[in-house]
Amino acid sequence: MAATLVLGSAVKSSSRYLMYRVLGHLLLMLSAVKLVAMAVSILYNESSFWVFLGSALFTAALGYTLVHKGRDAKDIKHRQLFLLTTLSWLSLCVFSAIPLWLIVPNCTLTDAVFETVSAVTTTGSTVLSGLDTMPKGILFWRAVLNWMGGIGIIVMAIAILPALKIGGMRLFKTENSDTSDKILPRSSTLSAAIGFVYLALTFCTMTAYYLAGMTGFDAVTHAMTTVATGGFANYDSSFGFYKDSPQIFWLSSFFMMLAAMPFVLFVSFAKGDKTSLWRDPQVRAFVAIVLFCSVLLTVYQVVHNDRAVFDALTHSLFNVVSIITTCGYASEDYTVWGNMAIMLFFYLTFAGACWLFLPIPQKCKISDRLAQKHTVNWSLYRRIP
């Protein structure tokens, strides 16, 4: 009996230490990204690079300590995977807030944590003002946090989990509600494929923005926040800063739409299934709703606001895509367009997040999938040791 208790205690301790090791690796990854932000600060001759350096060293030291503490751990329990998912997000947000707290004037710790949570969850809300004169290092830091949150810190983490002898798909399912079939046999392969699509889309967006007239820095940061559909911009007026460059609005609309589509469909496309995107009913519904609402708002503006057709279409499409993808960019104050526009955008705000705009057959399909998910989750909960 005593031997059994000792063995059970050792297993629990081993599971806890393995959690420490995974969190340690995440903090080491975060410290490496802070060094990139430090390099940006040095490039623009900003004295704040010392803050990034000190924060990176502190984060790396704690990460190494956790990795070392869990170096001999072998297994982890199901219920601890849920806790690990939560702790991964919390630790990323808290340690990411340090540079904002120490560099941005009049930024409290609460403000800094709010900003990083908004960035990592790609919510896009901000408590910062004066972005036009903000240090480049901070602007880059906000954008890269947005970008990391867009692909999901857990998706990045499962790339290292197989090396730790943990099934990456187990952790992925605790963080992601997608119950679609795996199109690749291993979680590490799937995460690598999604990561490649994410990088490729970011590079294409960055190149397009630069060729359309953005500066190199703006192209890089806005590409990251566009592909993440996070909406952080480098200016208080958001994309209204580029009001004289309609080509940027069109490019942004296109890439926001691509970024809002399931990346697994791009992986299928790359593997030779050329019709995978258009066969998906959610993609077809998404494109149809965007086109319908954009045309409707264009006609409304032309008739009621006496606006030029091209200008009305440009801003209507951009803001519809931005709202429905929950990106949050703005080209101008659409509340002055009229009551119909306000009501439509209010509806799209919720529709983009919960798919209320889908036709009835697709609603039924998603409801069936949600019922299946809850059934599976309940069965899993009952089996958790």
Write the layout of secondary structure elements.
Elements lengths: L1 H42 L5 H21 L8 H26 L5 H12 L15 H16 L1 H5 L10 H8 L11 H26 L3 H12 L18 H15 L2 H8 L5 H4 L1 H25 L3 H16 L14 H16 L5 H24 L2
Helix pairs in contact: 1-2, 1-3, 1-5, 2-3, 3-4, 3-7, 4-5, 5-9, 8-9, 8-10, 8-11, 10-14, 13-14
Keywords summarizing the entry:
72% helix, 16 helices, mainly alpha, disordered N terminus, 385 residues
Any overview of this molecule?
With 385 residues, the protein is mainly alpha-helical. Among the domains are: 13-178, no CATH class; 360-385. Helix content is 72%, strand content 0%. Helix 1 packs antiparallel against helix 2 (49-69), helix 1 (2-43) runs parallel beside helix 3 and helix 13 packs across helix 14. It is globular. The two termini are 20 Å apart.
Produce a short descriptive summary:
By secondary structure, this protein is mostly helical.
